[in-house]
DNA sequence: ATCCCTTTGAAGTTT
DNA sequence: AAACTTCAAAGGGAT
């Protein structure tokens, strides 16, 4: 409740203007490197859509976006955010940016350089948890304190990609439709559903993701995905590589053995 | 308490 | 350039 209120308020403040030329095809971007993530045989390819777009790495519209999002008059009194668990239809997408609604992103400090100085949802403490107590009791050396301060810097998260946005919106729906609760299983279903989406449906999410990246670039001009590299600790690297290596990535119809068989108690519509 | 699993996509690094 | 790696979310399960 509190979360949603905060996020919605953020959404309202950061309302996005409609993409110029609404009704134009959005700008999905093809996977750049990962062949395994290409839609498998039988799944509509996205590439024909991509030719509508000028560049695989569209440069952000310079200056006006952030101004618009800050000064844009509120369009609707409805506080339900894009990711409201109850709404769910992309057809009603407000022009918002999803990471403003990230549950874990409401902590953090203000947005650097942001005119409204609103805590930005993409900023989280490294631990993901709020630091309630001063951690330095004065017992550490300067170097240690500096080191610790460095590691406690808020983390600016990556903007969500199209599929992540789709997952965020559809997860609750899938969970409601089946008895599964484990995210790994839910994500498999969502992956299948993603491939089953029409190009137009997917394009909505690609467009949203593009806007996310644009705004992220504007808010954090110097930020790089590299900044977050190595921040996740990995328990068994080999095992992780095996399951997460690009070339071995499972695709529709070729899921790992473990998940090959459809879950028996799932209604067909879920899969 | 923290990482793994599982998905796709973006972007980073390595070969 | 291509291949490979990491991290975004989520939350139950494993360590």
From TrEMBL:
Identification of the protein by name: Transcription factor 7 isoform X2
Chief location: nucleus
PROSITE patterns per the UniProt record, alphabetical: HMG_BOX_2 (PS50118)
DNA-binding residues (ranges): 156-224
Lineage: superkingdom: Eukaryota
CDD domains linked: HMG-box_TCF7-like (cd21996)
Keyword Transcription regulation: yes
Compartment(s): Nucleus
Low complexity composition-biased segments: 112-121
Annotated stretches, region: Disordered: 18-70, 111-133, 226-271
Pfam family, one: HMG_box
Membership in a protein family: Belongs to the TCF/LEF family.
């Amino acid at each position: 409740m509190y979360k949603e209120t905060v996020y919605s308020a953020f959404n309202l403040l950061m309302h996005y203007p409609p993409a110029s030329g609404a009704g134009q095809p959005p700008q999905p971007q093809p996977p750049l490197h990962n062949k395994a993530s290409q839609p498998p045989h039988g799944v509509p390819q996205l590439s024909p859509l991509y030719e509508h777009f000028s560049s695989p790495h569209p440069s952000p519209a310079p200056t006006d976006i952030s101004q618009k999002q800050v000064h844009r008059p509120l369009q609707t009194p409805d506080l339900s955010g894009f990711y409201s668990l109850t709404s769910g239809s992309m057809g009603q997408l407000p022009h918002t940016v999803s990471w403003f609604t990230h549950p874990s992103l409401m902590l953090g400090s203000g947005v650097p350089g942001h005119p409204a100085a609103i805590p930005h949802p993409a900023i989280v403490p490294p631990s993901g948890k709020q630091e309630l107590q001063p951690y330095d009791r004065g017992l550490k050396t300067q170097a240690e304190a500096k080191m610790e301060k460095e590691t406690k810097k808020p983390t600016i998260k990556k903007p969500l990609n199209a599929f992540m946005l789709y997952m965020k919106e559809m997860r609750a729906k899938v969970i409601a439709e089946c008895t599964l609760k484990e995210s790994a299983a839910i994500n498999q279903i969502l992956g299948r559903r993603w491939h089953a989406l029409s190009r137009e449906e997917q394009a909505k999410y690609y467009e949203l993701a593009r806007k996310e990246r644009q705004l992220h670039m504007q808010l954090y001009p110097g930020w790089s995905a590299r900044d977050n590299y190595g921040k996740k600790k990995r328990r068994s690297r080999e095992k992780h590589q095996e399951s997460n290596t690009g070339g071995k990535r499972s695709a529709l119809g070729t899921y790992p053995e473990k998940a090959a068989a459809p879950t028996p108690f799932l209604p067909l519509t879920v899969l």
